[in-house]
Please model this.
Amino acid sequence: MRFHAPIPILRMFDLDKAKAFYVGFLGFTVDFEHRFDPDGPVYMQVSRGDCQIHLSEHHGDGVPGTAIRVEVDELDAFHAALLAQQYKYYRPGIQDQEWGTRETSVQDPFGNKIVFYRRLAP
Model:
């Protein structure tokens, strides 16, 4: 029996803001967008490498303010790339944590927190 990485569902309220943040700032790719009808809420998947995140405008899918953790092998390079963009709404710091990880975190336009981290050598 093999378990696979979970795919979090985060709540969003504005497709354009979601794309600006996840695609424009974080460098994810939109894998799919789905609506049951042209005026209906969007359900979509974004990914970068093996990381997949679902974003939903559907009531009841996710709660604003959810926090997720994403492990990144090249965390310092990722952090430098984020800062190099001079993104108007976010310039995250980076910090070594006492529990043995190096982390940078961002908050999306809908209040969801994403902590990008790598494990520090023991």
In short: The longest helix spans residues 15-25. The beta strands are 9-11, 29-34, 43-48, 51-56, 67-71, 95-96, 101-107, 113-119.
